[in-house]
Design goal:
Layout (H helix, E strand, L loop, with lengths): L5 H13 L4 H12 L10 H14 L17 H13 L5 H8 L3 H10 L3 E4 L1 E3 L6 H18 L7 E9 L11 E4 L6 E3 L7 E7 L4 E6 L12 H17 L10 E3 L4 H4 L1 H11 L3 E2 L16 H14 L7 H13 L3 H20 L13
Helix pairs in contact: 1-2, 1-3, 5-6, 7-13, 8-10, 11-12
Organism: Cryptotermes secundus
Subcellular location: Nucleus
Main location: nucleus
Length: 366
Amino acid sequence: MEQWNVQERVVAVRAYYRNGDSLVEALREFRRHFNLAPRVHTPSKHAIQTWVQNFEETGSVGKRKSSGRPRSARTPENVEAVQASVLRSPHRSVRKVAAALTVSRRSVQRILHELKFNPYKLQLVPELKPNDHLFSRQFCEAIMNKIDENPDFIENLWMSDEAHFHLNGYVNKQNCWYWAQENPAVLHQRPLHIPKVTVWCAVSARRVIGPYFFEDIARNTVTVTSEHYVTMLEMFLAARIHSVPNTDIKNTWFQQDGATAHTARVSMAAVRRLFSNHVISGNGDIAWPPRSPDLSVCDFYLWGYLKSVVYNTRPTTLAELRRRITEEIAAIQPDTLLRAMRNFQDRLAECIRQDGHHLHDVIFKL
């Protein structure tokens, strides 16, 4: 390991705190401070993290000397104080707990782990309106009845939706933690609207139709209106769904949510020209319950999965973002789609058990 003097360590630690605990930004400021060329070596992220931990626990950026004695910060009094603070305010960050108790952040983290407390991320879900749970339960019961009547119902179902992708990645939930000894499954209700590229897909147990990008002739993203939606149905979906092998369009069901662009008269007329009386939607043959993303395979699987892989390569242009979305959709395997659609059936049963409220125990894993 390279040796860095005290002045260099102090600069790195100060940069770390000044830039919101960001190791990347700390390294950038370190280069600027010492006017280092791009190829000149800098401290590793691990080294800076070690200096920060040493500073928080000892007040020095130098190497810690082992005393062989138990650390005084984790005394029974501090353990009791940390536990009481977290139980009183479980949403409070480790840093704020440490500041309030005048204990280092590292010590607070270790105390929490010794107490078997773990940080849990909040789920962001829509706020349910009165009677929403009733509509959800009625929908689930109607679909379960269809499955009882026809075991191939799930294989003949297409679920569709739009989503927004943007160049800066998706919602940052790294600071949404809840400290507890057991997962409280806390749901945080919050609307999210961060559009850049608007993508439409339809998912079945066999394949994904899409992506379709809602954009004008200059490739600028446009709002999904009924006019644009009908264009997509007639010019894109119609040709592709008829080309899917072994598709019996007479027995095919199509799901869309209750967005105004989907349920307008002109939109519903276009949908019915394709799927007749097999439409799951607002104003459809089976009513799709409002504010129920935990029942839509696009929401509980497709969009989250795509955003987790598309942004791995950090696309920097909209053209690159579109290309990455197209590539990752094409790479989805049929067995994954089959498991996702079967998970939808599990969610129906769980929704009935939850009397139409938000689901807590059904998790889809790749």
